Amino acid sequence: MTAASSSPTRDRQGRPLVAITGAGIVTSLGQGKADNWQALTQGRSGVHRITRFETSNLRTTIAATVDFLPDATSCAPVLSERLAVLAAEEAIAQSGIGHLPADGKPGNFPGSLFLAVPPVEIEWPQRIALARASGKTSDISYADLLRTATSGAFAEWHDLFLFGTTADRLTERFGIGGSPISLSTACSSGATAIQLGVEAIRRGETQAALAIGTDGSVHVEALVRFSLLSALSTNNDNPEGASRPFSKNRDGFVMGEGAGALVLEDYDAARARGATILGFVAGCGEHGDGFHRTRTSPDGAPAIAAIREAITDAGLTPDDIDYINAHGTSTPENDKMESLASTAVFGERASLVPISSNKSMVGHTLSAAGAVEAVFSLLTLLHGRLPPTINYEIPDPAIALDVVPNVARDANVKRVLSNSFGFGGQNTCLVLTSEPTA
Predict the structure, then answer these.
(1) pTM (predicted TM-score)
(2) Residue among 219, 284, 287, 364 flagged as catalytic
(3) 187 catalytic, yes or no?
(4) Domain boundaries, the chain
(5) Of 5, 24, 219, 297, which sees the most CB atoms within 10 A?
């Protein structure tokens, strides 16, 4: 053992500290941390009119789609995998751990994979193609579709639309050791992937973990489903101004696409190999409830519990938090609930702790959101600059928070709380710090 690892560094509970040594990101604002951070702190929106498919019969015709990739597709499993690969490559390259795929050979990442992906199911274009290929014009059964999907030109679809396939492909590409973990906890999935990576390192099961959240789910069927829930903004004439977290005139969220990735390592192991430490995931908190399949408990109790657990897990108190990366969806109910939760946890300080929503610019990236926003939280720590909540023109008198309105702000930030609150009461919060809290 080297001198750096001869005396183990532990937190107050005797667990290994979890360091971040690499980060990668792709959103509608661009590919990579540099482009995303520049756009985010300049207050630029990545929301625009959808051009990838026909929208004339949809209530919502805008989204923060990733359209700059060659041959961008609306097939969720394909695009989600492409986004995950780009984010993972940037994170692994920065960390300097293992090596990336090269010369037709797979990479070698010496750790585990925790992947948040959208719940995959075959979409309408593929269903219609299978129905036509079945040779039947009526009374088409599920057995007919399955038989067609597992033969001939459609055989690859069977694997493509299986939950877990994306993780298998990433494992092969990057040479991941151990069984890959695929997970879906609604809009908190990306944060859950990070939490599982942290817990695996703390338990000593691995010295490194690659945590990814990815989602390329903007397609017709998804837009229809969210519209039926009255969850989406219909401000189609002003795409850039449609996502308005915490504003009185907010009217729903805007779907987004993207991926975020973090390389997590046992602090001692990272120092022993000479890695650059970017920050730490010091605390994780999760709390669920069965209040409703889509709505959040109006008293905010699960969110309050998740925030408190994350702060306590980090060995901190609410007074130690310098900034909150909000879930901030721009829906009337969620923003109100998050404000209620902040007030309950931070008390009189709630109106003083800056809290801003990246979703005002990148939309709601769904399964990827927790990971995307964790990367933005890390960049906030590294650069000492708070991204704004844009489109904040009409304050909601019921939400008395410092939302960093419209313009980025320099600040001394050492501890960030990143909130993720998902459908069905699946809530996960993370505390990221610039220094160990032990």
Answers:
(1) 0.93
(2) 364
(3) yes
(4) 18-120+162-433
(5) 24
